[in-house]
């Protein structure tokens, strides 16, 4: 089990000190004079020595989140000058800047790390990290002391030139939750939640807001998928990259970024030409709480850590923290540092409980699942029924489908792979399907220099229904499954996406039982290839076969009479990647 709070119970910062009586003071002074006279006579008078600790110091290695390290280093400098002792040995605190995720992943072995992450004391930016360690590495030496060195609530930072200082926002207002391609009021930036407690807290805040506002699980999953997709588009590998992206924002899509008050202060110090304004959102917020964690069981080290803990929580340490844009352990702040003109308020916002380690794990998994690049073979029905007009649009089913699929392209990252087939009956000699674009990265360029994303968009715009064509669904499903199995990529999510406006209609062709037998012979749990079908229009009379195919492959089948809803269904289809269990068919 990880070590929890025990003998490190929190103490008041201003402890009462016992006072000696006057008589006791005279006795102590007389005794001290006798000792000094004796040492002087012996030639060993030592009170003028510059280092009263000799060579037997206790070195206390303190790993601190980089933004807090300057303030803790100043505290350590004062602490070391004061020659604080344990059993007569001076304690020397040595402060190092160490990324919080780096330490957590080194202990758990669950992520990439670099540099020296070992230490006697660890002060990460959030209690989420030690709790994550305790849940994933129960035998790790992690002693939570109950001490918060500093605090900084999360706010929404917007470039001052675009910010509306009078606007009142809630977390659900921060990012879009609609189908891809629809306009967004702002471009949201986030640091990769897999390595940033601020980024992870952003996901948790949005998840909570969407859970409250969504009427059912399907709506929540679709909205959460849209939120994650939007955040992925504005994600940065680290804070410096996110700051740079924020500073370059434009008026047509004003950028915003969830960050701590202290991070806003640091950003403004480095970007005077593009300063940011802090916005406190309704519904409360999370705080970076900088917990003081001991990582040793050695008696001398633990006692030294306790002495230094008292120093970082002392009244003398507080000015160092406030000068660096932090709030104190009791939410004290310096209005001359966190100034009102850029939105800071002296009143501390409502604090939300730190997410549980289970919630943190689930959110990280969801982020990484959507972060994993997709490998999709999209197949579009070009049978004669696609010539039918969609009521109220002035467009054919083919045109509506092509437009919706083109919007869906925006959901994919540049490194995602996408291919395009069309199908009907006898479209390619004796075959019922035809490749229009191979499965390859969207950012790749063809022989003519055209980016593959543009080639896919052009192919979608050029789709033309075959007036006499029927709908050879089952043969096309099988051919697509064979192709994706042959070219399977284990580092990607391999998916078949079918868009059709009718049931299987190919007299004398393959039957459902034969298709299911063939798929069953190829399917492997270690190489999943879900088939997602979006069936639309009044000609779809029987969804059960499509549901059976979806259930056998871990995919889903959706049906709507309105092709204009395809964009929203795209979100529902992608939300399958947020769930651990096989969702089955819809």
Number of strands: 20
Span of the ends, CA to CA = 42 Å
Class based on secondary structure composition and strand pairing? alpha/beta
Level of helix content? Answer: 25-40%
Flag low-confidence runs.
1-51, 580-586
Round the Cα radius of gyration to an integer and report it: 31 Å
- Tell me the strand order in the biggest sheet: 2-3-1-4-12-5
Overall 3D geometry? Answer: elongated
| Count of discrete alpha- or pi-helical segments spanning 4 or more residues | 17
Q: How many strands, what sense, and barrel or not for the largest sheet?
A: 6 strands, mixed
**What is the overall pLDDT average?**
83
Strand content: 15-25%
Describe the protein in words.
β2 (85-86) and β3 (89-97) form a beta hairpin. α4 (128-136) crosses α11 (357-371), α6 (217-233) packs across α17 and α14 runs parallel beside α15 (512-522). The two termini are 42 Å apart. This protein has 17 helices and 20 strands. With 586 residues, the protein is of the alpha/beta class. The strands form 4 sheets. A 6-stranded mixed sheet has the order 2-3-1-4-12-5. The protein has helices at residues 22-42, 69-81, 100-108, 128-136, 197-213, 217-233, 239-247, 261-270, 299-312, 318-323, 357-371, 397-408, 452-461, 473-486, 512-522, 544-553, 566-574; strands at residues 58-64, 85-86, 89-97, 121-123, 143-148, 152-159, 187-191, 235-236, 255-260, 276-279, 287-288, 291-294, 374-381, 389-390, 395-396, 417-428, 431-441, 493-500, 531-536, 556-560. The model is unreliable at 1-51 and 580-586 (pLDDT under 50). The chain is elongated and about 95 Å long.
């Amino acid at each position: 089990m990880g070590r929890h709070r025990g003998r490190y119970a929190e103490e008041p910062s201003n402890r009462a000190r016992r006072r000696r009586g006057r008589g006791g003071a005279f006795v102590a002074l007389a005794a001290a004079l006798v000792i000094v006279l004796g040492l002087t006579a012996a030639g060993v008078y030592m009170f003028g020595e510059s280092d009263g600790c000799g060579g037997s110091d206790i070195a206390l290695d303190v790993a601190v989140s980089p933004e807090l390290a300057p303030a803790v280093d100043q505290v350590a400098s004062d602490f070391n000058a004061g020659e604080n002792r344990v059993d007569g040995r001076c304690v020397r605190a040595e402060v190092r800047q160490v990324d919080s995720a780096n330490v957590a992943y080194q202990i758990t072995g669950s992520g990439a790390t670099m540099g020296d992450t070992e230490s006697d004391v660890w002060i990460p930016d959030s209690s989420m990290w030690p709790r994550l360690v305790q849940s994933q590495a129960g035998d790790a030496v992690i002693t939570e002391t109950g001490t918060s060195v500093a605090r900084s609530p999360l706010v929404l930072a917007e470039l001052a030139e675009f910010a509306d200082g009078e606007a009142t926002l809630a977390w659900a207002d921060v990012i879009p939750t609609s189908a891809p391609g629809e306009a967004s009021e702002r471009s949201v930036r986030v640091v990769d939640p897999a390595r940033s407690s601020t980024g992870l807290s952003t996901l948790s805040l949005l998840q909570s807001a969407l859970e409250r506002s969504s009427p059912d699980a399907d709506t929540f999953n679709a909205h959460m998928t849209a939120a994650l997709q939007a955040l992925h588009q504005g994600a940065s590998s680290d804070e410096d990259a996110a700051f740079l992206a924020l500073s370059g924002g434009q008026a047509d899509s004003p950028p915003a970024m969830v960050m701590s008050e202290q991070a806003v202060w640091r950003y403004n110090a480095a970007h005077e030409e593009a300063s940011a304004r802090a916005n406190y959102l309704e519904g409360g917020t999370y705080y970076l709480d900088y917990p003081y964690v001991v990582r040793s069981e050695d008696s001398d080290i633990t006692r030294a850590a306790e002495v230094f803990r008292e120093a970082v929580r002392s009244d003398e340490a507080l000015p160092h923290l406030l000068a660096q844009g932090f709030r104190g352990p009791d939410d004290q702040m310096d209005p001359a540092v966190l100034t009102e003109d850029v939105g800071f308020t002296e009143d501390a916002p409502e604090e939300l409980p730190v997410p549980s380690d289970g919630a943190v794990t689930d959110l990280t998994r969801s982020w990484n699942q959507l972060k994993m690049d997709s490998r999709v073979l999209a197949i579009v029905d070009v049978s004669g029924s696609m010539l039918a007009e969609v009521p109220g649009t002035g467009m054919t089913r083919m045109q509506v489908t092509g437009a919706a699929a083109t919007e869906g392209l925006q959901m994919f990252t540049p490194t995602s792979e996408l291919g395009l087939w069309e199908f009907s009956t006898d479209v390619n000699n004796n075959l019922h399907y035809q490749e229009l674009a191979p499965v390859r990265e969207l950012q790749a360029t063809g022989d003519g220099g055209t980016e593959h994303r543009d080639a896919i968009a052009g192919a979608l715009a050029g789709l033309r229904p075959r007036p006499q064509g029927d709908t050879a669904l089952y043969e096309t499903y099988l051919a697509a499954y064979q192709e994706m199995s042959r070219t399977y990529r284990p580092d990607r999510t391999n998916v078949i996406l079918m868009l059709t406006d009718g049931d299987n209609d190919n007299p004398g062709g393959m039957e459902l039982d034969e298709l299911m037998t063939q798929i069953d012979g190829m399917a492997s749990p270690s190489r999943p290839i879900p088939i997602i079908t979006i069936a639309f229009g009044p000609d779809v009379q029987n969804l059960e076969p499509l549901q059976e195919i979806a259930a056998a492959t871990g995919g889903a089948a959706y049906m709507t009479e309105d092709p204009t809803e395809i964009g929203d269904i795209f979100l529902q289809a992608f939300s399958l990647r947020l769930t651990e269990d096989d969702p089955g068919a819809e």
